[in-house]
Amino acid sequence: MSVIDIHNHFIPHSWPDLAEKFGGDWPWMKHQDADKAMLMFGNKEFRPVTSAVWSAEQRLADMDRDGIDIQVISATPVLFAYGRNAKEAAECARLFNDAARELCAINPDRLMSLAQVPLQDVDLACTEISRIMREGHLGVQIGNHVGDRDLDDEGIMTVLQHCAAEGAAVLAHPWDMNKTVRNSRYMLQWLVEMPAETELSILSLILSGAIERLPKDLRLCFAHGGGSFPYLLGRIDNAWRHRDIVRQDCPELPSSYVNRFYVDTAVYNDGALKLLLDVMGEDRVLFGTDYPFPLGEQVMGELVRTSAHLTEHQQRKLLGLNAKRWLGID
C-alpha cells in the first residue's frame, strides 16, 4: 500500500535577505539552536518551527516512524508574497521553488514538491508554472485568494486553465485570514476563519458559474478537508433551491459539482472523515497531514488507518491511489 502525503509544508533553513534587496517586511528565519527557530515576518514573530521544516533527514525519519512512503512538500503560505510587487514575488517564488527541489534531491523517490507562483500577475504566474513543471515539480500550491480577488477572478481562472494545460496539480490552501479583535485569541483565525476561507473559495467557483469554465481535467484540491464546505453543503443546496440570488449564476445544484475537485483528509476526526467521504465520494479524498505544524496530524496516517468506517480498499484509495491520479504519477 503506497502512502502519499499531499499536504505538508517546508521552509528552507535560510535564504537571502529579501528585505535588504527589496525593502519592506519579508519573512526570514531567526534560528535559536540547531533544532528550533522562529519564522519572522519583518520584526514580528510569525510561527515557532523545528528542524522538521528544513531538514530532509528529520522529515524522512518521521516518515519512516509513521509509515509514509512519499511526501509532496509545499511552502508555508506566508512565503507567497502576493501583497508585494509582482516581479519581486516572482523572484521570491523562484527562490523557494528551487529550494524545494534542493530538499527533494536528498531522496527524490520519497520527497516530491509543489511550487508557488506570483498569483497576482497572470503572465508571470503562467511563466513560472511552465518553468517549474520542467524542473520536476508536480504542480503548484496557491493561496485561496489574492487580496479581494477570489478563485473566480478572470486572471486566476487563466492561471488555473494554464495549470490544466501543463498537467500541474493544484493545491488551494487558505491563508491571509481576516484578523479582528474577536478572533485574535486562541488561534481562532486558524480554527474558525481558515475553514471558512476554504468554503468561500469553493463557493466562489461554484456559485459564480466559474467552475463550468474550468477544464474538466484540471486537478484541483482544497486543503483541510475542504474547510467547512462539506459540512454545510445541505445548507448551501437549500439556499440554491429557495433563493434566486444564490442560483442566479449557478446553473446546477451546488452539490452536483463535488466531482470537479478533491479535498484532503486533514479533519482529525473519524466521524468528520465519514461525512467527508459521504459528501465527496471515496475517489475525491486525498491523504494530507499538514506536517510538521502543531495543527497537523501528529501520528501521520492514524486517522485513515484506524477509521471504523473505511474498508481496506477505501484506505488504499485515500492513502495513495487517489493521490497518484491527482498528481499524475505511476
UniProtKB/TrEMBL annotation:
Q: Which UniProt keywords apply?
A: Decarboxylase, Lyase, Metal-binding, Zinc
Q: Which biological pathway?
A: Secondary metabolite metabolism; quinolate metabolism
Q: Name one GO cellular component term.
A: cytosol
Q: What is its EC class?
A: lyase
Q: Which GO terms describe its molecular function?
A: aminocarboxymuconate-semialdehyde decarboxylase activity; hydrolase activity; metal ion binding
What processes does the entry annotate via GO biological process terms? Answer: secondary metabolic process
From the UniProt record, list the coiled-coil ranges. Answer: none
Q: Which residues form the Amidohydrolase-related domain?
A: 4-329
What single Pfam family name could you report for this chain, choosing any that match? Amidohydro_2
Q: What is its EC number?
A: 4.1.1.45
Q: Which family does it belong to?
A: Belongs to the metallo-dependent hydrolases superfamily. ACMSD family.
How is the quaternary structure described? Monomer.
Which protein are we looking at?
2-amino-3-carboxymuconate-6-semialdehyde decarboxylase
Species this chain originates from: Marinobacterium nitratireducens
